[in-house]
Amino acid sequence: MGGFGSGSHKQNKDAVEDGEIFDLSDFAKIPEFKERVIKKSKSLSGKYNWTDKVTGEELGSIYFTFKCIRENIFLNLQYNHTNYFTGEKTSMNYDIRLTSLNRSNRGIVYLLECPLCKSHRGFKLYNSGSKYFACRDCLKLNYRSSKDSRKFDRICNWFGSELGESPKVIQQSLKKIYS
Questions:
Q1: How many CB atoms within 10 Å of residue 166?
Q2: What's the pLDDT tens digit per position in 29-59?
Q3: Of the candidates 146, 147, 122, the residue with the CA atom closest to the CA atom of residue 133
Q4: Which of 50, 55, 156, 166 has the most CB atoms in a 10 Å sphere around its CB?
Q5: Using CA atoms in the order 32, 39, 79, 81, what is the torsion angle rounded to 10 degrees?
């Protein structure tokens, strides 16, 4: 117990919120997606944009094509990646497989397969400066809220040690005051 290498390793992870998120559920809202890609096995192309929520300024974009090959649906992504440290630009072009999941209460749901590990599936793929959009595990991403909750725990531990109380008592007191 304890010692080198023990404890939570998630503290040094980047936050999901600091990068771009490619969300498949955005496409489920588009009628052409269901009509062309899912029902008729045709392709659908376009441009996916990320904008600053405050200013509306475009932060980045990516060209996509949904294409059907035999019984499988693939998402092709094309974009330029700029290396943060060297400034070197790389043209990216790769396919991501869509898998289907039959849910009894919602019918068939399509998920993105992580192009790196090929084992994680979900509605979202992330990018926080890496060349590829991938799952949170492959990119070692964490949610900012999980980092913040540990900060709160550390503050309660410090106050507890200063006041001679247990951290749990400090947490309960703060919750009573601010709830």
A1: 13
A2: 888 887 888 777 788 899 988 887 788 888 8
A3: 122
A4: 156
A5: 120
